[in-house]
């Protein structure tokens, strides 16, 4: 059994109710052909790199599943027939996959996702004055001009690259230098 990944771009003008039968048909095909749907990833509406059937946007969906070549042929045949599918592409992720190991990985990922605590909306505690760092005290004899000079001293200016390029051009072979072309006078 192999592991595949199929991307499909569905017409963005279709509604959620019109898209759902396409997704359901792919799920049915996977179960009918003794496949295993690992993950269904809905990316949503995105801009296309180029227009497809005069559409600038598309609704992206990724199916990650295990199955045989016959299953891939059926899924792609369905996408060729259905007008809602603008483009599709199937890629082999693994040529020899252990189905039990994939099922264990999926179960572990789902249990980890469920065990993560949901973010709670707790009121923010007011920040105490002890947590804040006090500003540095300015000495009485320092003026705004001196403070500006300190900031300028702290700034590190990068060396201009022009000097490096000039140095590199000085090391070139003198034979490589060109001489100006003389103009010929017309009679």
Strand order, sheet with most strands: 2-3-1-4
State the helix count: 5
Overall 3D shape: extended
Largest sheet: 4 strands, antiparallel
CATH architecture of the domain at 2-115: 2-Layer Sandwich
Beta strand count: 4
Secondary-structure-derived class:
alpha+beta
| Radius of gyration, in angstroms, nearest whole number | 33 Å
Q: How would you describe this structure to a colleague?
A:
- With 187 residues, the chain is α+β, with helices and mostly antiparallel strands.
- The chain has a domain at 2-115: 2-Layer Sandwich (Alpha-Beta Plaits), CATH 3.30.70.60.
- Helices cover 36% and strands 26% of the residues.
- The protein is built from 5 helices and 4 strands, in the order E-H-E-E-H-E-H-H-H.
- It has helices at 16-32, 69-81, 99-115, 144-154, 161-170; strands spanning 2-10, 36-52, 55-67, 85-94.
- A 4-stranded antiparallel beta sheet has the order 2-3-1-4.
- The longest helix is centred in the first third of the chain and has 17 residues, at 16-32.
- It is extended, with a radius of gyration of 33 Å.
- The N and C termini lie far apart (86 Å).
- 12% of the residues are buried.
How would you concisely characterize the structure shown here?
36% of the residues lie in helices and 26% in strands. The protein is α+β, with helices and mostly antiparallel strands. The N and C termini lie far apart (86 Å).
